[in-house]
Amino acid sequence: MRHRVKGKKLGRPTEHRLLMLRNLVTDLIEHGKVVTTVARAKELKRLADKVINKAKQEDKVKAIREVLTIVTRKDVAYKLVNEIAPKYANRNGGYTRLLHYSFRKGDAAPTAIVMLVEPKEGNSEE
């Protein structure tokens, strides 16, 4: 039984899995989208939404520190806190989108695209 077990192991030791997911989150924030396998994409989506939620805090210094526990590069963390997170101020989740894409050439693994959702313009609360 899988009671209270969160996430997949992805066939990797804990340290390698966490580093891989941190690098995927960093690349997603830097480039706006990432192509990876479906299993990795589902785990990436969970972690990326949590990081963007942390970046939406009022206190910028605290937000940057908390984001840097997951994101591996300072410039990407600053970009997330100062540019990306304010766009999602009125959004309560669902910052990423997962699209099933194709099959990888070498081993025919199903791949998916994970991308940041574009916030709607003119969505102000009056």
UniProtKB/TrEMBL annotation:
Pfam families: Ribosomal_L17. Keywords: Ribonucleoprotein, Ribosomal protein. GO terms for molecular function: structural constituent of ribosome. GO terms for biological process: translation. The keyword Ribosomal protein applies. One of its GO terms (cellular component) is cytosolic large ribosomal subunit. The keyword Ribosomal protein applies. PANTHER family: LARGE RIBOSOMAL SUBUNIT PROTEIN BL17M (PTHR14413:SF16), RIBOSOMAL PROTEIN L17 (PTHR14413). Part of the 50S ribosomal subunit. Contacts protein L32. Belongs to the bacterial ribosomal protein bL17 family. HAMAP family: Ribosomal_bL17 (MF_01368). This is Large ribosomal subunit protein bL17.
